[in-house]
Amino acid sequence: MKSSSKIEWHKLLGKLLKDLLSPVDIQVFPDAPVMSKSPEIDVVLIKRNPGKWTPAQLALLPDGIRDTQVTDILLEFKYTESLSEKAVQQALTYDFLYKAHKTDEKQVQSFLLSATKPQNSTLKKLGYKSTKVPGIYRSKFQLVRQIILISLNELSNEPYNAFVKCFATHRQEKQKAFDSLEQSGLLNSSTNELKWFILGLKGLWFTEKGDDMNLEMTAEQVAELGKIWGNAFLSSLSVEELLEHYDRQKILSQFKPQERLAGLKPQDILTQLKPQERLAGLKPQELDELQEYLKKREQKKEN
């Protein structure tokens, strides 16, 4: 992997988390300052309400983060850099500066997200040991243990891990993450902006090879790229193929009743209704006319 890439990966992660978690009542502040005139943290998640995560939130939060109940979560993200003593020191500095302004330090938890798989020698040096949850490490050292390590390449393939795992460096792990998002249906209920961003990320890595290219691309440009590719893909589909991607009832709900019935013959419509449904809504005068019609029809049969 070339280190010459000019993409600010932590800003792309921040963009994804903001689009993903804002609808489920979690505030996300990319590049949030920890104090006045201080360095900026890559991402800060602020859980609005104390207490347990809601089911909607748990469906989107990865291992490690979903297992904590604090209100303030700090994320330090390393994409091109490997886990190092310097990276941990940086995360500890942000953790200390942020807690200096909090009345309850126990409501703050810092995480170091590593896109590359940490080397065993570095883990040993920093006292990190694997937990029962794949990809989650905790240090045995008193100071370092304040920073929980998340190795994106080692996270399980559960759908709730897929969003952050899209930033893993191993190609096959990234592919698993995108496949999981498509198969789980999580994107179907997401905003268009998030769908475009995910599609843009996938295209950036698997088509444009963004992690190896010397290029500049903002989070907004990634989303716009995904929108362009998405529209191009949809326009190439036949009606039958398009219907495979969308629920028919949701499509019909976008049309007015008269638009849904356009082209249908009256008898085709009536055959779908029960007798009481056919009569529902008729005025007394219309019912009288119907009775008169039925009398004449019976008379014709008798004759």
Structural write-up:
With 303 residues, the chain is an alpha/beta fold. Helices cover 45% and strands 12% of the residues. It is built from 14 helices and 7 strands. A 7-stranded mixed beta sheet has the order 1-2-3-4-7-6-5, with helices on both faces. A hairpin with a 5-residue loop joins strand 5 and strand 6. Helix 5 packs across helix 6 and helix 7 packs across helix 8. It starts with 8 loop residues before the first helix and ends with a helix. The model has no long low-confidence stretch (mean pLDDT 82).
Query: Which shape, going by the Cα principal axes?
Result: elongated
Tally of alpha and pi helices:
14
Number of distinct beta strands: 7
Q: Indicate the percent of residues in helices.
A: 40-55%
Biggest beta-sheet profile: 7 strands, mixed
Q: First CA to last CA: what distance?
A: 93 Å
**Which spans of ≥5 residues are poorly predicted at pLDDT below 50?**
none
Mean pLDDT: 82
Assign the structural class, choosing from mainly alpha, mainly beta, alpha/beta, alpha+beta, or little secondary structure.
alpha/beta
Binned strand content? 5-15%
Radius of gyration: 28 Å
Spatial order of strands in the largest sheet: 1-2-3-4-7-6-5
**What is the H/E string?**
HEEHEHEHEEEHHHHHHHHHH
